[in-house]
Amino acid sequence: VQLQASGGGLVQAGGSLRLSCLFSGDIFSSYVMNWYRQNPGGQREFIAAATIHGIANYADSVQGRFIISRDDVKNTVTLQMNGLKPEDTAVYYCNAKSRYTNKDTWGQGTLVTVSS
């Protein structure tokens, strides 16, 4: 499995960004797709998940501001980030977790910087 994330950048507080992750190398529907983020010196934290049934789960810190969605035809998962805050600044990682083996695969990360 390979994941290619894109869409990071610099945005002012209150703005929006859209991250995308392209999945390849296996059957997309066999994976729960997730987004995580990591601040400098911090731990990697869960942000959002999109299950194969279209159910979305969010961390409390982004609930109501971020929207995760998956396209099982294009094999992509996106993270629409609205109302960005400086504390959202981090490297964002796409993750694929196999439904059958629980094996995790990580993308390369994309930097999101929110200026105040």
Structural account:
- This protein is mostly beta strands.
- Helix content is 0%, strand content 56%.
- It contains no helices and eleven strands.
- The protein has strands spanning 2-6, 9-12, 17-24, 31-38, 44-50, 56-58, 66-71, 76-81, 90-98, 104-106, 110-115.
- Strands 2, 4, 5, 6, 9, 10 and 11 form a seven-stranded mixed sheet that branches. A four-stranded antiparallel sheet has the order 1-3-8-7, with no helix packed on it.
- It is globular.
- It starts with a strand and ends with a strand.
- The model has no long low-confidence stretch (mean pLDDT 96).
Concise summary:
By secondary structure, the protein is mainly beta.
Number of helices: 0
Distance between the termini: 37 Å
Query: Low-confidence parts lasting 5 or more residues at pLDDT below 50?
Result: none
Secondary structure category: mainly beta
Keywords:
116 residues; mainly beta; seven-stranded mixed sheet; four-stranded antiparallel sheet; 0% helix
List the helices and strands and how they pair.
Elements: E1 2-6, E2 9-12, E3 17-24, E4 31-38, E5 44-50, E6 56-58, E7 66-71, E8 76-81, E9 90-98, E10 104-106, E11 110-115
Parallel strand pairs: 2-11
Antiparallel strand pairs: 1-3, 3-8, 4-5, 4-9, 5-6, 7-8, 9-10, 9-11
